[in-house]
Design goal:
Largest sheet: 8 strands, parallel
Number of helices: 11
Bound molecules: 1,3-dihydroxyacetonephosphate
Order of helices and strands: EHEHEHEHHEHHHEHEHEH
CATH architecture: Alpha-Beta Barrel
Number of strands: 8
Distance between the termini: 11 Å
Number of domains: 1
Radius of gyration: 17 Å
Strand order of the largest sheet: 7-6-5-4-3-2-1-8
Helix content: 40-55%
Shape: globular
CATH class: Alpha Beta
Structural class: alpha/beta
Strand content: 5-15%
CATH superfamily: Aldolase class I
Length: about 250
């Protein structure tokens, strides 16, 4: 049985005190959602220790949105994987399309970040996904395949067992335009096949999340698909009620 995951990527939103309120709201309403759903929140770095405190005593896990490619040293402005792990993070989002697009993250950088994440006991939530032009040209399968081959294929079998993949079509992020449930299933099944080509049966255990304008009104339909194991949520993760309602989308 694969894990069911609803992860919130808060991106660069909320002031620390607002983040704490949001976390408290999620903790307060968590009991309304099946305990079979694993909730993860990924606030900005500046909020991590305060949010960790607010989550104490609950089963909601903490993640960061990025980590440095190096272990430590003279890298002004960077935050090491060891630092976020020390604050209680269990997860780290890596390779988000916004990082690839605005901060020039390449597979070479991401290989180093993945290495740092594993060296510090973190589970990466590795993001893949095509942009609109690539989708319209029918290149989406090749794009995600390359994103997986260039990074995930470098993992050991042990590391692969601690990996979450998020498929996030760039054209669906923050646009209100969601992939249809069938589009999500088609590419999730393909991603699982690409993973199986390298890691065999272990691919059946890897959670693959959908991200891109996922909200309470469409989550259930998308999560009902065989190879969709949950969501990586942006905008709708900023309201405790919406975030929790997305978790209620699991019927299986
Ligand atoms: P939205 O849910 O706001 O479209 O963002 C998705 C996303 O990028 C999560 O990482």
């Amino acid at each position: 049985m694969r894990k069911k995951i609803v992860a919130g990527n808060w991106k660069m939103n909320t002031l620390p005190a607002e983040g704490v309120e949001l976390a408290k709201g999620i903790v307060a309403g968590r009991g309304e959602v099946c305990s079979c759903v694993n909730f993860i929140v990924c606030p900005p770095f500046t909020h991590l220790s305060m949010v960790a405190e607010a989550l104490k005593g609950s089963d909601i896990e903490l993640g960061a949105q990025n980590c440095a490619a190096e272990a430590k040293g003279a890298y002004t402005g960077e935050v090491a994987a060891s630092m976020i792990a020390a604050l209680g993070c269990k997860y780290v989002i890596l390779g988000h399309s916004e990082r690839r697009q605005y901060y020039g993250e390449t597979s070479a950088t991401l290989n180093k970040k993945m290495e740092q994440a594993y060296a510090n006991g973190l589970t990466p939530i590795y993001c893949v996904g095509e942009n609109l032009e690539e989708r319209e040209a029918g290149k989406h399968f090749d794009v995600v395949k390359a994103q997986i081959e260039e990074v995930v294929y470098n993992l050991t079998e042990e590391q692969f067992k601690n990996l979450v993949i998020a498929y996030e079509p760039v054209w669906a992020i923050g646009t209100g335009k969601t992939a249809t449930a069938d589009q999500a299933q088609e590419i999730h099944a393909y991603i699982r096949k690409v993973l199986a080509d390298k890691f065999g049966a272990a691919a059946a255990e890897c959670p693959i999340l959908y991200g891109g304008s996922c909200k309470p009104t469409n989550a259930a339909e998308i999560f009902a698909k065989e190879d969709v194991d949950g969501g990586l949520i942006g905008g709708a993760a900023l309201k405790a009620g919406d975030f929790l309602a997305i978790g209620k989308g699991f019927a299986k």
